[in-house]
Amino acid sequence: MDLLQYAFMQRAILSAAIIGTVCAAIGVYVVLRSMSFIGAGIAHASFAGVSLGFLLGVNPFFTTIVFCVGTAWGIAFLSERRKVHEDSAVGIFFASTMALGILLIGLMKGYNVDLFGYLFGNILAVSSNDLLISLIIAALVIGCIWFFYKEFLLLTFDPEMARVTGLKTKMLNLLMMTLMAVTIVISIKSVGIVLVSALIVTPAASAYLLSTDFKNMMLLAILFGVGSSWMGLLLSVWFNLASGATIVMVATLVFFVCYFMAAHRRRHKFSGRTRS
What we know:
The protein is built from twelve helices and no strands. It is mainly α.
C-alpha cells in the first residue's frame, strides 16, 4: 500500500483502468466478429509509426496514430474490393509495416532504449500527458460505442439485415476499425506493441465463455480487463517483472479459469439432462 503514495504508481493504476476498460469494450466486437488477426496487424503497424516518430524527433503518438488508422483503412479498402481476402490484406500490412519500422531504425544514429520500450511496454513509465491523452481518446471510443450501440449490435450479429435495413455498413465497419486502431495506439505505451492485441482479445474471449447475453459479456469483459491489468501491475511491481507481459499472463490465466468453468458447467448440464 505504501506504493500508492508515489505519483508514478497512481498514474499506472489509472492507466491500467483506462486501457483495461477500452480494450475490453472494443474487444467484445473484435471477438464476436472474428477480427483478432486484424487487431494484431494494426498493432504491429504501430511499430513503423513509433520508429518514424523517434527518427523525426516528434511525439511518437502522432505518427503512430497515423500509421495505425491508415493501416486499418487500408485493410478495409482492400478487403471490400473482394479481390484480396481480408487475411491476405492483414498479412501484407503486418509484414510491410514491420519491415518499414526496421528500415527506419536503421536510419537512426545510436541505440534508443525508449523505442524498444514500446515493443513490450512499461506501464510504470506512463507520464501525466500520456494519461490525459489516453483518457480523452478512451472517452471518445466509449462514447462512439454507446452512440452507435444498436448499429454495431446489428452489424455484429446480422450484417445482411444491417445492409437490408439501409445502414451504411461500410462506414460503420470503417468506424469500428478506426476505434480499434486508436485503442491500440493508447495502449502500446503500457503493454507494448507485441502484446496489446492479447489485451484486446483475451478478456473478451473470457467473457464470451461465461455469458450468452451481449450486455453481460461487455460488463464481464471490462471487469476481466481492468482486474487483469491491476493484478498484473501489482505482481510486476512486487516481483520486479515486465509489466506488459505480466498483465497479459494474468489475463490468460483468467481465460483458462473461465474455460474450465464453462466446460464444467456444460458437463453438469449434460449429465443433468441424461439423468432426467
